[in-house]
Amino acid sequence: MSSNESIISLEGVSFNYNQHPVLQDINLSILPGQFIGIIGPNGSGKTTLLKLISGILSPKQGKIKIFNEDIDTISRKKIAKMISLVPQDSFISYNYKVKEVVFMGRIPFINQWRGETALDYQISREAMEKTDSLCYAEKGIHQISGGEAQRVYIARALAQSPKILMLDEFTSHLDLSYKYEIVKILQDSLKEKVQCIISVFHDLNLASYCSDQLILLNEGIIEEIGTPQEVINEYNLKKVYRAKNHIVQHPELAIPQVIM
Amino acid sequence: MRSLVELKNNNNLYGYTNWRYKALLILIIGFFAILIVGFIGLNFGTIIIQPEKIWSIIWQHQTDNSLGLIIWELRLPRLIMAMLAGMTLASVGGSFQGMLRNPLADPYILGVSAGAALGACLAIALQYTLKLYLIPYLPFFSLLGALISIALVYLLSQKQTRLSVSDLLLAGVAINFFFSAIITLLLATSKQGTHTMLFWLMGDLSTANWQKISWVILPVFLGTLLLISSSLELNAMALGEEEALHLGVQTEKFRMKIFLIGSLMIALIVSFTGLIGFVGLVIPHIARLLVGPDHRIMLPVSALAGSVFLIICDTIARSLIAPIEIPIGAITAILGAPFFIHLLKRRNNINE
Amino acid sequence: MVHQKTMSAVVSLLLFIFLTSPILCWANTNAGDDLFPVILTDDLGIKITITKKPERIVSTAPNNTEIIFALGLEDKLVGRTDFCNYPPGVEKIESIGMLSPLNLEKIVSLEPDLILTFGGLQAKDIIRLRELGYKVLALDAETLSEMLNNIEIIATACGVPEKGKELITNLKERIDFIATSSADIPASQRLKVFTGSSYEAIWSPGKDTLFDDLITLAGGQNIVGNQKGWVTISSEQVALAEPDVIIITSGIMNPEEIDKMKDDVIRHPGWSQIPAIKKNHIFAANEDLFYRAGPRLVEGLELLYEIFSGIKE
Question: What range defines the domain where residue C194 resides?
Fold first, then answer.
C-alpha cells in the first residue's frame, strides 16, 4: 500500500480520555473505493476512532492525514465539505421538517448571504429519493419513527456530497426490509462521488456483508485488519469477544457469517 | 421588480421555498405591522388624541403645544424604544434558544441581566443613602454592571479549550444567583430606594428620549443583523453538538460569538429599559409556531413580532388605568404566561 | 453630665440654625426692584431661573401643596396629587395621580410654568420634566428650619416674597415659644419618646428626620435619636429603651382604627413593663403633622409640646 494512494492515513495515533488510554498506536491506511468496517467489543474504541478520523477529536500522539493533508491544518468547514457522518442516535432540539433536516447537509456549501442555489435543493431532494424518505419530507422530525429518522440522517449525510462517508451503527433502528436497501444505496454511492465509506458495526454479519476491509479493535489496539474472510474467524472472535461462536459460510456469497 | 417576479417563479423548487422570497415577505409585513401598531399606540395614554390630530402633529412636527409635546417627546420615544427593546429581546432570546439547544432559554439566562440590575440598584441605593445625585447616570451604572457580569461569565466558562453548553449555562446561572442575592440585600436595606429599584426591575420605558434612542438604534439593528446572519449555523447547532461540528461549525467559537453579541445587545437595552421579562422567552416560540424553526425565517419574525408585542404592551401599560402606569414587566407576563402555558399544552398533545 | 451638656449644645445649635441662615438647602435670591428674574437652587443642586411670575403651578408633593395654599396662591394651582389632602378646597384642583411614577402626560397637558416636587422618589421623572423644558423645583426638608427655608424659596419663585416673610415670621414665633421653654431641659429630665410604623419590622425615624427634630424641639428625647435616618428597631430594643411616651400616627384619624392601634401597642408581647404603657401615655395623632414638610409641622410641634407638658404635670 503506497501512501500516495491512500485517502486516509493514521500513523502512531493514540488517544486518552481523562488519562485513561482509549486507543493506542493506531496505524491505518485506507485506499479509495473501499467500504471499511470497524468492529470490536464495547469499549474497544470504535466510535473514538471514527471521531478521530472525522476530526472531532484530536489525537494525543500521532498524525492523521486526509487526502495527504494533515487534519490539523484543515479548517472545520473544509473537512465538512469532504466528510459527513451519520450518527447512531440524534436528538434534534426543535421540530424541523424532514426536508429541512436533509437540507442542512448543504450548510457547508452555502454562503449565508448569497443563499442556496437550485442545485442545493436538487441534491437534497435526490438524497431523500435515494433513502426512500421523500414521503416524509413535510413531516416534523419529531413525528417520525426511529427507523424513518435514521434514513433521514443518512439522506442528510448524502446531501452533504461527501468524499468520505462515515456511519456509526447505521442500522440499529432499521428493520430487515431497509437494512439491505440502505447497504445497496451506500454501495451505489461508492460508484459515484463517495470515495470511501467507513462504518462502525455491532452486527458482525452485516459487517461481513458490507465491508471490503474490516478493522478489528480490541481494547484500543488493532487486533487485525483484512478482508472479512481473514478477520472473522473463531480464534479472533473468541479472543476479542470472549464468547463461543461458530463461523459458517454464507450460502450464496463468499463471506463468513457468525452464529452464536 | 423583475427580481421579485423571478423570486416568486423560483419559489417552488424541488419542494423547497426560496428563502429570499419568504424573507422579503416577512420584512414587508413586519414593517407595516409596526407602523400600524405604533400609530394606534400614539392615540392612547392619559388622554386620547384623535388620529387626525396625530397625523398633523407628526407631519408638521409640532412641538409648541402640549399635545405636540406629548406625542413627540413622551409617546413617540417610548414607542420607538419599545420597538427596539422588543426586537433585541426576541432575537437574542431566539438565538440563545438555538445556540444552547434549550427551549427554555431567555436572553437573561447567561447572567447579563443580573449584572445590569445590580449596577442600577447599587446606583439607586447610593443615591438614597449617601445622597449622591446618581439617578441621571443610572444607564451607565447598569451598563457597567452588565459588562462586568459578561466578563465574569466569560472567564468562568472558559475551561482550557472546551466550552460546552453546560459550562456556559452553569456560569450564567451562578452569576445570576450571586448577583440576585446582593440585589435582595439592597432591596431589604434601602427603605426609600426599594420603590425605585422595584420599578426598574419590572421594566420602565418612561425614561426614553431621543438621545438614548440615538445611542441604541445602530447597535440594535447591527446586532440583530449579525444574529440573523448566523442562522445557518444556529440551525446546525440544533442538530446536536457533534452534528454541528460535522457540518463545519466551530461550535465553541460560535457559541462565544453569539453569547457576546447577544449579551452586549441586551446589556445596552436593559440599561435604558430595566428588565422586561417574557418577551425573549415566549416570542421566539410564537415565531416557531408560525413559520417553523428555521432560524433564517424564525429570527426575523421573532424580531418583528417582539417589536409589535412590546409596542402593544407599552400602550396598554400606560393607558389601561391611566393616570396610574402599570409596570411593563407585569403586562408582558400577564399576556405572555397564558400563551406560554398554551404552548406547553400543545407540545404535550403533539408528543402524545 | 457630658450627655446633658451635649443635649443643650444640640438644642442651642438648632436654635442658632433656624434663627440664622440654614445650610443644607440654601436659596440665592436676587433682590432688586423687580421681583424677577430669580435664580433658585433646589435640593438636587440644580439652579433654576424663573423669569416671570408663575401663573400655572403643578405640585407633585403634598407638603408643597400646603405651602402654596398657606401663601394664598391656590388660584394659581392647576394640578396636585391624589395624596394632597389638605387644606379643604384642594379637592377642587385637578389631580395628576400618584406620587411615583409621575404621570408625565397629565402634567404636560396641564401646561404648567412651575412644577414643585419633593425630589426623592420622583428624581427620574424630574430629570424627564427638565429635559422637556419645564421649571422644576425639588424641595423637601429634614428639619423645621429647612421647611421654613422652602417657604422662602417658593414664595420667591412665585413672586410673593412679602407673604412668605410674613408666614415664616408667624411660624417662627410659635416655634420659638416652644423651643425656648424646652431648650434648657437637661437630657435626664426629657421624656423618652418612641414612635414608629410596624409592619413586619418596626421602622422609627432617627436623626435627620422631621419627627426627630420636632421631638427634640418640643423637649423630648427620641429613643432612636442617636441613629441616622429611618432605622429598624426590634421589639426588644424598644422595651429596653423604656420610653415614657408612645406616639401612634395615622393618616385617617378614625376612632375605631385608633383604638385598635392603641390596643395593639398595649398588647404587644414584651412591652407590658414599658413606662409609657404602664401609665397609659399612648397618644394618637395625624401623621401629616409630623412627616409632611409643610406649615402644619408647627401644629405637630405644638401637639407634642402639649402632650409632654401634660405628662410632666
Answer: 185-312
Give pTM, 2 decimals: 0.84
**Residue C243 maps to a domain:** yes
Tell me which chain A residues have a C-beta less than 8 angstroms from the C-beta of B351.
142
- How high is the pLDDT of residue A242? 83
Q: Do C104 and C206 fall within a single domain?
A: no
The domain that holds C54 is classified in CATH as 3.40.50.1980
Question: Nearest CA to CA, how far is C67 from chain B (Å)?
Answer: 23
β-pairing, C38-41 vs C47-50, is: antiparallel
Give yes or no: residues C123 and C239 share one domain: no
- Please tell me which of the candidates B230, B240, B245 has its beta carbon nearest to residue A76: B245
In the predicted model, is pLDDT for residue C22 greater than 50?
no
pLDDT over 90 (residue A102): yes
Rg for chain C, CA atoms, rounded? 20
In a domain, residue C10? The reply is no
Nearest CB to B325: which of C101, C109, C132? C101
pLDDT of C47: 86
Element (H, E) at B241: helix B241-246
Query: Smallest Cβ distance to C106: which of B46, B191, B195?
Result: B46
How far is the C-alpha of C51 from the C-alpha of C265, rounded, in Å? Answer: 53
Q: Position of cell 423570486? A: B7
Q: How many domains does chain C have?
A: 2
Cα C189 to chain centroid distance, Å, stands at 26
Rounded average pLDDT over B202-217? 91
pLDDT in tens, C249-274: 887 778 888 888 888 888 888 888 89
Do C233 and C148 sit in the same domain of this protein? no
Cβ-Cβ contacts under 8 Å, C229 against chain B: 129
**Domain match, C101 and C214 both:** no
pLDDT of the residue at C13: 64
Determine the pLDDT at residue B3. 59
For residue B12, what are the β-bridge partners?
Answer: B17
Query: Residue A234 in contact with residue A249, Cβ under 8 Å?
Result: no
pLDDT digits (tens, 9 = 90+) for C210-232: 999 999 999 999 999 998 888 88
Question: Which of the listed residues C171, C195, C224 is the one where a domain comes to its end?
Answer: C171
